[in-house]
Amino acid sequence: MQKKKLIFLICIALCFPWFEAITITEAAGKTITVGADNLNVRSGPGLEYEVVATLNNGEVYSIVKEEDEWSQILLDNDKKGWVANYLIAKIDGDSSSTTDEKQENEKSANTGLINVNSLNFRTAPSLDAAIVGKLDQGTVVTILSERDNWVEIQYAEQIGWVSEEYIQTSDEEEQSNGTEQTLENSTLTILHNGTNIRKNPNTQSTILVRANKGDTFKVNRFENDWYEIQLSDGQMGYVASWVVSAEEEEKENEKEMNETTINQETNTDWEQYLKNKKIVIDPGHGGKDDGTTGTKGTLEKELTLETARHLFDKLKAAGADVTLTRQRDKYLNLPYRVNVANEQNADAFISLHYDSSKNESVRGLTTYYYYPWQKELAINIHSAIIDETEMKDRGTRFGDYYVIRENNKKAVLIELGYLSNPREELQVQSNQYQESAATGIYEGLARYFKEN
């Protein structure tokens, strides 16, 4: 009897490796594609386990086995590790044929571009829904459906919801890019000496002539970020949009009419609504934190400080009690900036920033608030800046930013233009724009205090 028991135990022991092999074999036909940079590989299926390796976006690995929302993969050094499923794309069977199908589906599907960093990716269309991951600015996702102000998307085979405010659809991108546009009664002015006028609309084309700063030309049309202009000898040439300043006669006439209306409104004396108001101006970034860098090397931290100084002077002249969180190129942490507003018992906190996108054609101005009771201030300031600057209106939006989220004062964060857009970068650097932006914020604050 004892001999039979011994034989039975030996048989079971010999079967254990076979059972494990079955588990591994069942997953061996699957691979994963990494869907994020610096993806952490952990020693076990959970965030509490130590990181044993990091992977790069696009890398492919074989799946050994799966557990809940985690997959164990085989690394290059024959070691094993665990990765979260929402950061990977799983492929069954032959990866080459599946990838072809996936690419074909992506071509036919409507896509979107995430336009903010660390966007929360949720399980349902609600701020109360669980967060399944974060998406970085510039991430391309597949759009599945829309509901209220939310968009259902798919990324790395994970389906979830994001706010429509933070995603640019392919239809919007096509509209903003506009391959060709006819411009009647338009002129442009050259901004730099030695500007190249080319035969065709690209930087490799033959140079027909070089123009100097202040030269003006009649514009025929706009094509792919280039203006077709008429030269003095009658022939046509092309000049890049980011080295000129274009004006349309019709817009100039409208601007004169708008200025008349604005001047009449200004006569109501905004100063009386700003006097003695405690306002904190927060120039974004500073010191070791450059913020975004423009296509021509413009540093966001320098531009926000310049805008802040223009605004400071205007508000101070109106009798407001104004505080700058920083007056020089100095690094400040986010809690400190918010604490300034609390210590000053501020009536308004204005955080100044400039935006960036991987798509150089993206442009415009956006104003953010976090709490509903901050929204009215944001709307007043935003509409006034748009009136003054005539920038593309990207709207007033909810934004999950620390300096407005952790602020118990009326606080807004303003993105005053895209430094990643070559033409807009030049525009926002100009003294005219800085003056207009500051005037817009000044008037927006006055409008708000007039009603509140």
TrEMBL record:
CDD domains: MurNAc-LAA. Pfam families: Amidase_3, SH3_3. Residues 29-91, 109-171, 183-247 form the SH3b domain. Keywords: Cell wall biogenesis/degradation, Hydrolase, Signal. Its EC number is 3.5.1.28. Residues 1-21 form the signal peptide. GO terms for molecular function: N-acetylmuramoyl-L-alanine amidase activity. This is N-acetylmuramoyl-L-alanine amidase.
